[in-house]
Amino acid sequence: MAVVTQHSALSTQHSPGFTLQGCDTSGSMARWGTLHTAHGVVETPVFMPVGTQATVKALAPDDLRDLGAQIILANTYHLYLRPSVETVAALGGLHRFMRWDRPLLTDSGGFQVFSLADRRKLTADGVIFSSHLDGSRHTFTPHTVMRAELLLGADIIMTLDECTPADSDHAYNVAALGRTHRWAAQCLAAFSELRQQRNDWPNPAPMLFGIVQGATFLDLRAESAAALAALDLPGYAIGGLSVGESKEQMHTVLEQTTPLLPASKPRYLMGVGSPEDLFECIARGVDMFDCVLPTRLARNGALLTRQGRIPIKSTRYALADRPIEEGCACYTCRNFSLAYLNHLYRAEELLAYRLNSIHNVYFMVNLAKEIRAALIAGEFATLRAAFLADYKVADRAADAAQRAARIASIQRKA
Ligand SMILES: [Zn+2]
Known about the structure:
This protein is an alpha/beta fold. It contains 17 helices and 16 strands. Helices cover 45% and strands 16% of the residues. The longest helix is centred in the middle third of the chain and has 28 residues. The radius of gyration is 21 Å and the shape is globular. The protein starts with a helix and ends with a helix.
């Protein structure tokens, strides 16, 4: 109740939108700010846990509040197919349906639909696809996607875009980018039109973000940033990264793209990242992140620490009477030993998934907060160097396998 009161007070003071509060002075492009939404304030840089099916896997809303999550994601494609956006709207919208009173973001479903390579067909207006659940046919257009996202009622909603494969050529990306830009303008028109038609959408003040595409072609990224900036949207995402390109390519795209986006608007890097990605991409001007990594790793028994990932099933932890990480303030580390977590995981007990997920999600959410605090204190460069010196990055092959699994899971059930 206290949270609701606080959010109401804040939302009457600020209309939805971003305030850039400061920039790193030690030579990076990092910055910090606050994003005001109808359901409260998000302090950036921020890591957003992913709740594909209107639930962050294995975690209840109370777990997410306790570990300090400010904003979470849900996936329009999945909720559109099941239970349907009309069902969610009839039950009061996504916030009420899933009992989450803080900010929410929904994607447009474009990423999922375009991942269904053999199940979708482009048309002049949008894309026809068959459901991975039952094969039924559906059409996503800018209008149907805006309607679906308004019915869900998230605070931040995304335009329909085409996320191209990492190996697609320049000519294909030129054509895809034309669609993405046309759809962004059509989404903005549909967003305004639908909100004028009725005033009882679940969310009183949603914000529409556009998505910059262009694969690893810097000329196309520049063209995309300019085309979307011209629409004067309240925020911009950078999509089509972490889909198979190298980290170096991702960093180059970010370095070239973020300076072309309006400094006064938040920048959201979709589907990224790992702990090291947070540092590297914040240093290149990114404010918001989402990734299934912490929850997926947790379910696979990989726990995040300042030194790197540890495999909880290893017999080396069978008698370890200490937390995952000394000093970690999460519920799991405050209460349970590595030995107990090792036992739960080996016994395939359901509690293993919850306790592992609490720690991993806390790790990412808290790391973004730590980076924000360091930026404000003028110590970002120091923290970045110290963290990256200690943190052992998971090997490339493991990372590539995870990315492939992320894309494959969309076609199963995520
Ligand atoms: Zn912990």
